[in-house]
């Protein structure tokens, strides 16, 4: 039992009729982690979260929280609290009563109760808001009250269902940082569900990417972004150029791959491909540079023509058509010091280069 | 342009006539209760409080009023409780045949009360149940539950399920969750249901007529008094009193309901 993680999800499935919402998921979450379940809508991430909370009963498998099996524990006895997507602030209660809601059974003396609630209000920076009615709160304030209401129970795990989905963009970015700070301060394990890859990348220590009820990959944000092992994750996080290819040869430095549109590409990729294997080559748009001169011999180059550009403020997207192909390659060019209008325009011939280390090799499919 | 104005004035006139048609008889009730004449007819005579004094002294009428309360208060409590249970079940769970069930619950509304009255009379007789205010009450519950059900269902249908889940999540049992979350949030609907069912039972005539024993409820008493012209003005006074009380109660209930609606609306605004 000792080697088991803080939260251990073992072979969990949830079927609704014929639909496999969650299909044989294994996950381990460490104590104090900020963990994200990321995926497109309908991938089963919310169902998985609701099974952790106890609102859904797994069809198969077992969930251990703090090394204890949870199957027999009703939701109102679980050491787990949840922040709901729409925050579920009780409309008939004020802020103080909302936050104190879960403490009724503790039968605290009034001064102790007030102190606990005021501490919680201070934690979420809403001191003095206790008497506010629920309908007088803004979206961001509701979110904080929902957080305080759950955290005051001192759960072992806090579950958050799309915690920032209802907020506008600016507030969302601010709350991402606040939420991460808050999590570090309280030291409670946070598990949250999101469909927003940026939110997952910003806030979490580790991410599990889900699709069609299965976890596709999990790991730290930078690992999933920089070194995805599956095409799904490479495509879902950020943007990616894909090329189909076949291993043409290998030596001590890496592999040489014959691709459909990039010609011969060399990569330092993992050695689990043999000569003759079919694979997918992936390149991030920001890892492809445009320049007439290449820095050293550790790069590959190819020529092309700019067919279209899209100015995005901080960067410009260039669509570069390669010889013998209609499908353009996406290149992201960082705009610094007002350089947005300097770059190559339509129909300009350009030379593209990239470092071999940034070439990703993925299994075909 | 002129044409539109023409239609506008026509509609305005129609509205005024319509409102007068509906409310004039109601307004006449209190007016004639102060009229110093036995006969309800124009021209009116002098002002008097005689009928109001007489009303207070008519023990038969006050007894009937008491009977009506004795029936209506338990009826509104019982039918609202039953309506709440049914409304909760129909809105919270995906029940098999929920639509058929709702239809069945609503059926007493479309059965003519006279048929219902006869049917219940036969049923009570065959069970050997003696007719009394109890049997009137049972009949009234039967017709009040559907009203209660629909008032509460409309309230609970917009109810955010995650509020109950939040309560469970915060460590409350389902039973306490009902009392700490569901009931207070649905309270305006509960009050509306209590008032509505009370009113229905209070002024219901047909079922009471069929199902009562020796005791009579207020509508039955008033009806029996209409044979004696001298008693009519006191009935008018009582009617006026009931009118005022009802008006105040319904206004209060409506304000309560709107307050509740406003709150739950803004609560839903966040999602």
**Please, how many helices of chain A?**
8
Instruction: State the helicity of chain A in percent bands.
Output: 10-25%
CATH superfamily of the largest domain in chain A: P-loop containing nucleotide triphosphate hydrolases
Please give the largest β-sheet of chain A. Answer: 6 strands, mixed
What ranges of chain A have pLDDT less than 50 throughout 5 or more consecutive residues? none
Give the DSSP E fraction of chain B (strand runs of 2 or more residues). under 5%
Order of helices and strands of chain B: HHHHHHHHHHH
Distance between the termini of chain A: 38 Å
Please estimate the helix content of chain B: over 70%
Task: Report the structural category of chain B.
Answer: mainly alpha
Could you characterize the architecture of this molecule?
The complex is a heterodimer of chains A (365) and B (271). Helices cover 22% and strands 35% of the residues of chain A. Chain A is an alpha+beta fold. Chain A has two domains: 2-236, Rossmann fold, CATH 3.40.50.300; 241-363, OB fold (Dihydrolipoamide Acetyltransferase, E2P) (Beta Barrel), CATH 2.40.50.100. The mean pLDDT of chain A is 87. Chain B has a single domain (59-270), classed as MetI-like (MetI-like fold), CATH 1.10.3720.10. In chain B, helix 1 crosses helix 11 (232-268). Chain B has 271 residues and is mainly α. Chain B is built from eleven helices and no strands. Helix content of chain B is 80%, strand content 0%. At the A-B interface, strand 6 and helix 4 of A face helix 7, helix 8 and helix 11 of B.
Topology:
The complex is a heterodimer of chains A (365) and B (271).
Chain A: E1 7-16, E2 19-29, E3 34-38, H1 45-53, E4 60-65, E5 68-69, E6 80-83, H2 95-100, H3 110-123, H4 139-151, E7 157-161, H5 169-186, E8 189-194, H6 197-203, E9 206-211, E10 214-219, H7 221-226, H8 231-236, E11 241-251, E12 254-259, E13 264-267, E14 278-283, E15 289-290, E16 299-311, E17 315-322, E18 329-334, E19 349-355, E20 360-363
Parallel strand pairs in A: 3-8, 3-9, 6-7, 7-8
Antiparallel strand pairs in A: 1-2, 1-4, 4-5, 9-10, 11-12, 11-14, 12-13, 14-20, 15-19, 16-17, 16-19, 17-18
Helix pairs in contact in A: 3-4
Chain B: H1 2-33, H2 50-57, H3 59-92, H4 98-110, H5 113-126, H6 133-157, H7 161-169, H8 174-203, H9 206-211, H10 218-225, H11 232-268
